[in-house]
């Protein structure tokens, strides 16, 4: 099989490419390089530079590389930006997916793995300790980004039912860490790099609200190491290959909650900084607790996360130091 990885030069995409190639799968990357970095890719993995809105280029790529499966990660993914630019997000994430699926079905490609998000759940009513978000939890996205991911799931599922395309939609929770420093996330959009940035600036990290109904009053989230996430893609790809006609929707998380305060304390301890956080008002729309049930992924894929939060912080910090050597202490 040859797998086309759209968005394969991005942070998550490059890890998926590495995991797929290490598992013995042939891969080709399709990326517009708007945020991706070509240097992240192994030298023997072909790169086609193009947009998912370019149906002709997609069709040529599928044919030229004899693609037999697609892992679709290419998307715009910043929640705040999506609020300001909803038309842009719907065009890139939904129309781009439609164009890609059209090319895929016309080419007779049998398997399709879709990068979804826990953002489809919005603010689930799971504030109590022990409550987990399952795939049956009602979806009520609170941003255009989350809406595009839910609409993408609908489109993928409908296409599969109409054409026989085997599909899997993977709902990522909070992705962190790196397989190696050169593959680390260079963006500052998630909690761990946001804390790193504040510490590098010799400023206190921020906690947005400490009066939530959680054990320490701060929001609780499920964090998944990007290496585990990449391996979940390998497992999903092989599950579709082994059983044509499947239609999977799966949470990809650890099933363990970590509070914002616990994460900041862990980062302080590992980095050698000792900057107590400052508490600011809540951000609108932040749910108190969102922790995945990953039981279905284990049952359907035989997959389970192996890395803990310490691994995530350590590997992310090594990548941060590579990009910001001035942050190193001692």
Automatic annotation (TrEMBL):
Annotated TM spans: none
- Quick check: keyword NAD in the entry? yes
The protein's name is UDP-glucose 4-epimerase
Family stated for the protein in its record: Belongs to the NAD(P)-dependent epimerase/dehydratase family.
Assigned keywords, A-Z? Carbohydrate metabolism, Isomerase, NAD
Example GO molecular function term?
UDP-glucose 4-epimerase activity
Name of the top EC class for this enzyme: isomerase
Q: Pfam families attached here?
A: Epimerase
Swiss-Prot/TrEMBL cofactor(s): NAD(+)
According to UniProt, the reaction catalysed is: UDP-alpha-D-glucose = UDP-alpha-D-galactose
């Amino acid at each position: 099989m040859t797998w086309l990885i759209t968005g394969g030069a991005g942070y998550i995409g490059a890890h998926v490419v590495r995991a797929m190639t290490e598992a013995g799968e042939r891969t080709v990357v399709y990326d517009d390089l708007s945020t991706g970095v070509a240097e992240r890719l192994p030298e023997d993995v072909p790169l086609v530079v193009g947009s998912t809105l370019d149906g002709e280029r997609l069709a040529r790529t599928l044919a030229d590389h004899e693609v037999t499966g697609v892992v679709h990660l290419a998307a715009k993914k910043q929640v705040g930006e999506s609020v300001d630019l909803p038309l842009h997000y719907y065009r890139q994430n939904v129309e781009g997916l439609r164009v890609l699926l059209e090319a895929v079905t016309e080419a007779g490609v049998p398997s399709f793995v879709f990068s979804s998000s826990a953002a489809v759940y919005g603010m689930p009513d799971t504030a109590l300790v022990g409550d987990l978000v399952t795939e049956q939890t009602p979806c009520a996205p609170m941003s255009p980004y989350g809406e595009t991911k839910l609409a993408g799931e609908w489109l993928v599922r409908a296409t599969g039912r109409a054409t026989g395309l085997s599909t899997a939609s993977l709902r990522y929770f909070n992705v962190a860490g790196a397989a190696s420093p050169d593959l680390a996330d260079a963006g500052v959009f998630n909690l761990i790099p946001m804390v790193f940035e504040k510490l590098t600036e010799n400023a206190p990290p921020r906690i947005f609200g400490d009066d939530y109904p959680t054990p320490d009053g701060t929001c609780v989230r499920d964090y998944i190491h990007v290496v585990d996430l990449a391996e979940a893609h390998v497992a999903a790809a092989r599950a579709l290959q082994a059983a044509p006609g499947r239609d999977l929707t799966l949470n990809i998380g650890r099933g363990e909650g970590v509070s914002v305060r616990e994460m900041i304390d862990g980062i302080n301890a590992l980095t050698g900084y000792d900057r107590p956080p400052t508490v600011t008002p809540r951000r609108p729309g932040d749910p108190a607790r969102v922790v995945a049930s990953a039981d279905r992924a284990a049952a359907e894929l035989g997959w389970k996360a192996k890395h803990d939060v310490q691994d995530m912080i350590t590997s992310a910090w090594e990548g941060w130091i590579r990009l910001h050597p001035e942050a190193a202490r001692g």
